[in-house]
Amino acid sequence: MTMFVFRKSSYSNGHEECVEAATNVPGTVAIRDSKRPDGPILHLAPAAWVDFRAAVAGGRIAAAPQA
Model pTM? Predict the structure, then answer.
């Protein structure tokens, strides 16, 4: 089993929107909800992760409204 080393986003506030990313495995970026460490993990190609981060930083992707 792949052992990802996750780190929490500096934008996570500890109560909501808690995102962790692992970049220690070559060829993949793993993303998970830090509130659910045993939950699902999204696997992205490194280029897709770079594109996603650029889109968020550039305001092309906005956070979903809270229900």
Answer: 0.75
